[in-house]
Amino acid sequence: MKGFYILGGYPDMKKFEEVFKYLAEKADFVEVGLAYNDPVADGPVIAEAASKVVKSNIKIDDILKIVEAYKKSKVYIMTYANIFYQYGLMEFSQKYGKLINGVIVADLPNRMHGFFYDNGFDIPIIPFVTPESREEDIEGLKGTKADFIYFVGVRGVTGSNVNFLDDELVEKVKFVKKMTSKKVVFGFGIKTKNDTEKVMTYADGFVIGTEAVKRQTDTTQFKRFINSIIE
Amino acid sequence: MKGFYGEFGGQFVAETLIPVLDELDKSFELLKCDKDFNDKLNDLLKNYAGRPTPIYYAENMSKKYGCKVYFKREDLLHTGAHKINNSLGQALSAKKMGKKRIIAETGAGQHGVATATVAALLNLKCTVYMGSIDAKRQSMNVKRMKMLGAEVKVVDEGTKTLKDAVSAALRDWVSSCNTTHYVLGSALGPYPFPKIVSHFQSVIGKESREYFENLGIMPDYIIACVGGGSNAIGMFKGFLDVESVRLVGVEAGGISDKDGEHAARMSFGKKGIFQGSLSYVLTDKSGQISNVHSVSAGLDYAGVGPEHSFLKEIKRCEYHYARDKEALDGCLELCKLEGILPALESSHAVGYFIKNASKFKDKTILINLSGRGDKDLEIILENMEGAI
């Protein structure tokens, strides 16, 4: 499962449309970020890009119109809890539940999924596992209706450095797969083809964010980068 | 649901922090009943911080406004504000949990100074995050924190105030939670922080309750300023069960009702999820956190502690706001009538009282002076040219 994160509406709607269309044809899945002005899980590249999108006042519905127009691969929406909460948890579900395959909410830990579901949200929420996750936390994910489990490989924000072949990390991912029988996608810190090759020796997939967002302003460079990873 | 006050609260943070929040909760529940821990904390509160703080009957002010006005003097504490109660408690807990480093966020600098102070005392490494606008308007406190051996990281992102200092501290904590404790400075953030901070601040309410019980009366009103809400919740905790006491939280009304020109979450905000919990928040309908303004750096914050939202919802506390000008007038009035220079945060409580003095006629009022105003002198002088 080869996935890429791009930021909705960045640097403008035209370029976003072009990169989304390209990814929808090439990648196994696309994560579309909805900008938030208090992005505590994001490193400087995504945080700065998000700040520009917020200033340009782009609407969520406009971003999802593009998703609807070009969607070919699976699409997950990644953002923060307040974005969904203010939109209306039930309203978002009813409007986009059939279009998108799941959501990734950076500040919604697994134990808080119930809060969303109890308030009318019925799109699958992708659960997180981290190097800190305890056995009982992982066991609790067995019944998830999400397509995969998102393994946050670093203690830190997006764009951080990781040793992808660290024994503890590799063992943890293998343990999660065994315990939950779900696919595990590795996120945070992946920058190059070499990184993805290392990760794919033990995970079922990866997602690249910061390096993709960096190139969203230049679509030629963006496409070249995607090709360098996928081909 | 655990960690909620009614519908408010919760743990809206990165999954990485969940085990550390659980560890913190478990450790706190043990420590708060631990005799050695409490003996050590009480000794430091008494002999280092200067507790109990007095309650002062303000004769001149009482005479002028036709009521009985008392002040709880948290401003007399070491480092100049109630913040030291919480910093001492949390830093001692961190030490017990084997952490070597503490981090903190600060707006006006009072919490940063208190945390830097206890870090020096307890030999812990300390980093304090502060927005660049706040660092500029509270430059003396920046210098003070550095003198105390803390590293001050100035945050030049977003609104460059308290919100972004909290975000930066959260980012640091996600990367360093194995070795570092985050001394969150107000009764907000993810559970168990609201519970921990209100516990360490509840000493304010306990002492006040004891004082009035000894007098054989109860105040009719208690007034406290509300930024994140730690001094207010600490005070209110002592009186929640006394129905006759009306509890009033005063927020920063800034310069107008317009979005971005105030920090009155209870009056103009709505329910939202921000920096760890569900509470009243100043947010737009697309989910972005609004800009805020207050003459006081300590009240300049888009969110509020979840327990306050709950107390508003069940109508146990009422929340109002004072404008910048009313707070500045309150500050000057207290200086002139009683010889006390209050912090601009506390001045909002005083300003609200003065503006509504007729409502308090013949009543007994207790105002929490959460901190002293030395740190705000430059801002006061800038804003009150001609009045002084």
Structure description:
The complex is a heterodimer of chains A (231) and B (388). Chain A is of the alpha/beta class. Chain A has helices at residues 13-26, 44-56, 60-70, 81-87, 89-96, 113-118, 135-139, 167-180, 193-199, 210-214, 219-230, and strands at 2-7, 29-33, 74-79, 102-105, 128-129, 148-152, 183-187, 205-208. An eight-stranded parallel sheet of chain A has the order 4-3-2-1-8-7-6-5. In chain A, helix 1 packs parallel to helix 3 (60-70) and helix 1 (13-26) runs parallel beside helix 11 (219-230). The radius of gyration of chain B is 19 Å and the shape is globular. Chain B has helices at residues 18-31, 35-49, 59-65, 83-96, 110-122, 132-137, 139-147, 162-176, 193-215, 230-237, 265-268, 306-313, 324-338, 344-355, 377-383; strands at 4-5, 8-12, 55-57, 68-73, 101-106, 125-131, 151-155, 180-182, 221-225, 246-254, 270-274, 276-281, 317-323, 364-369. In chain B, helix 10 links the parallel strand 9 (221-225) and strand 10.
Topology:
The complex is a heterodimer of chains A (231) and B (388).
Chain A: E1 2-7, H1 13-26, E2 29-33, H2 44-56, H3 60-70, E3 74-79, H4 81-87, H5 89-96, E4 102-105, H6 113-118, E5 128-129, H7 135-139, E6 148-152, H8 167-180, E7 183-187, H9 193-199, E8 205-208, H10 210-214, H11 219-230
Parallel strand pairs in A: 1-2, 1-8, 2-3, 3-4, 5-6, 6-7, 7-8
Helix pairs in contact in A: 1-3, 1-11
Chain B: E1 4-5, E2 8-12, H1 18-31, H2 35-49, E3 55-57, H3 59-65, E4 68-73, H4 83-96, E5 101-106, H5 110-122, E6 125-131, H6 132-137, H7 139-147, E7 151-155, H8 162-176, E8 180-182, H9 193-215, E9 221-225, H10 230-237, E10 246-254, H11 265-268, E11 270-274, E12 276-281, H12 306-313, E13 317-323, H13 324-338, H14 344-355, E14 364-369, H15 377-383
Parallel strand pairs in B: 4-14, 5-6, 5-8, 6-7, 9-10, 9-14, 10-13
Antiparallel strand pairs in B: 1-2, 2-12, 3-4, 11-12
